[in-house]
Amino acid sequence: MIIAILTISLMAGFFGLVLGYAAIRFKVEGNPIVDQIDALLPQTQCGQCTYAGCRPYAEAIASGEAPINQCPPGGAATIAALADLLEVEILEANPENGEHHDVPLVAIIDEQTCIGCTLCIQVCPVDAILGSAKHMHTVIADECTGCELCLPPCPVDCIDMIPTSQTIDDWKWTAPVTLAGLAHER
Amino acid sequence: MNAKNWLNKLHQMHGGLHLEDHKAESLTRGLQQASLPPQLYLPLKQHIGETNKPLVRPGDRVLGGQLIAHSSSPISSPLHAPTSGRVREIAAHPVPHPSWQSDTCIVIDVDGEDEVLPGNPVDAQTLPVSELVERIHEAGIVGLGGASFPTSPKILRGNNQGIDTLIINGVECEPYITCDDILMRTYTDEVMNGISYLQRIINPASTLIGIEDNKPDAVKAMNEALSARHLNNTHIVVIPTIYPSGGEKQLIQILTGREIPKGKLAFDIGLFCQNVGTCAAISRALDRNQPLISRIVTLSGDGIRQPGNWEVRLGTPISHLIELAGGYLDNECRQHLVMGGPMMGFSLSGDQVPIVKASNNILITRQQAIPQAPGEHAECIRCSKCADVCPAQLLPQQLYWHARARAYDKTEEFNLFDCIECGCCSAVCPSEIPLVQYYRAAKSEIRAIQQAQFKSDRARIRFEFREKRLLLNKQSEQERRRLKREALKKRIPQTQNGDTEFDPVQAALARVKAKKQAQQEASAPKNTTNLSPAQLKQIEAADARRRAAREQRT
């Protein structure tokens, strides 16, 4: 009897030490699920989800505070990927957050109208606008995420969102459309 | 060593098909020189890699061989004017591309004089190797077997890896195409010279020239040329005709028995592959200082009156070649144009598209050979014929199911990217499923997803960097103000002889008070000071009068 109790308590003590050590040695910094969610979001940093960027939205989803259907730039693909990751139901995109554009947009500054006020530069979440006070500003099209955050502050409304130009290199082969395939998708 | 011994040593590739080769039609006449068309349309991008930037402007006169577009990227290939003329415009024009889209082309009005930029040919046997590679790059040479990958970066990478075997691809396994066959017969010396220069550059232990056994005349011509010169350990290997033995990986397997590991390239296992057409182009670039401005194109199929091979300047519209070949058999054939062969080619939007560096064959058929967008098909019956013929030993059926369900991670698990799109599976499928179309769609979708992922990763890094920068700015601003306040605090007590009880507000009030007083004193009337005794007397008299008057009133 005593031997059994001793053995069990020794083992319990031993494993307790091992677990305690492991908890310190292999401590995970931050919340890994937030990183995984953040990796699925499109990183436009547009704030249409009502959060101040993709990472804050990822944190809100992880804490169960926000549903997965508030990201218009990501569209149905992002919702499906999030549902897959979090093992929840696929939701319809919430129309209140904004609409999804199939072709990504890019901001363009009308150089004739720009007065060089730097307001757009201050709000651009990815530093994609270049310029200085009283000098013409321009958008680095390759870095622009099409978040539209630069539109409201512009005092002369000189920024337009245009669809990104599709070159021959962006062209995609289309899969054959079959009657069965259509039925399958429905 | 003769061809027979080598045949015994040949290895086998998996699968493949025996196809009706249809090569005789275009071989009834020898190589013909195509006349100059009135206009040449030169797409800025005719290679894999970075798009060229034009160096000429509309109205400029150009000479044959003059550089007209280039790019600074290492993976690119410059473009030269194929003949003399004047640049008409630089604008979008239909190009040979499966999308049927237009792309930017330099349009040259040909003046017919065919004036050539004078060049200085070099002695390729004595020039340093690095200069040879540089000249191959400057000549705009790309792989003429169909992929049009720039040749000089391929050589540079191959040289870094160390090459034991140089493989020259004269297989030309796809039906209808005979341009390499006719090239080996007509320009045998150029091909051989090109091979010898490649040998000088990459210094392989042995060289194998692979030619299919359905080209006896080419084999004969090549053998004669080879025996006439002394090339180190070079052999012509005649291989059995089976499609797609001309694929790089398949030819390597047949000739050497080696397989290229997944995700690796030929030079990773010490092999270097070049097409015979590329060898001839290298010889022209070095011996005659002539850049890549023309190529041999086969016109074949049952929709053209006189099939044959033409040596054509790049940029020549296909319609011009069709006229040279006697025109379409009937008007319907105009809609059935394919660039490349019937297995791997793609349909063209029309005959206004130009010949580019990659154009080896134009197929004109009475029946639609390759539809641009394949439509309905029957269901898969799981016969597994596709797996039997797949030269890459993939499972086309599994790939089909996953590609159709858009399960892209699954397609990658089944090695979608090892598919060479040879079309064997589609050709044998009893349900006539356009399998390759599914694979191409899945591949381009996966590439698009990867690109989007790359872009979003970049945006994340930029966003996080900006947040960090703003935070740092804020912190450093706070720090600056804190330091300034501290400095101020230190300075004021010193002036007050260490009095720590000193109140700056009171001191300021006192200062203001003192200043005000001084001001008041300064501005007080000064007409009663420094008076003479006479004036004092007058003042006293006046005061006495005032007093008397006041007393009288009261």
Topology, element by element:
The complex is a heterodimer of chains A (186) and B (554).
Chain A lengths: L1 H24 L6 H9 L13 H9 L12 H12 L18 E5 L9 H5 L5 E2 L7 E2 L19 E5 L15 H7 L1
Antiparallel strand pairs in A: 1-4, 2-3
Chain B lengths: L2 H7 L21 E3 L5 E5 L9 E2 L6 E2 L4 E4 L8 E2 L4 E10 L7 E9 L18 H10 L12 H11 L3 E6 L8 H8 L1 H15 L3 E7 L3 H12 L6 E6 L8 H9 L14 E5 H12 L6 E7 L7 E6 L4 H7 L12 E3 L6 E2 L13 E4 L20 H5 L6 H9 L3 H6 L10 H5 L6 H61 L8 H20 L9 H21 L1
Parallel strand pairs in B: 1-14, 9-10, 9-12, 10-11, 13-17
Antiparallel strand pairs in B: 2-8, 3-5, 4-7, 5-6, 7-8, 13-14, 15-16, 15-17
Helix pairs in contact in B: 2-3, 4-6, 5-8, 11-14
Please provide a brief summary of the model.
The complex is a heterodimer of chains A (186) and B (554). By secondary structure, chain A is mainly α.
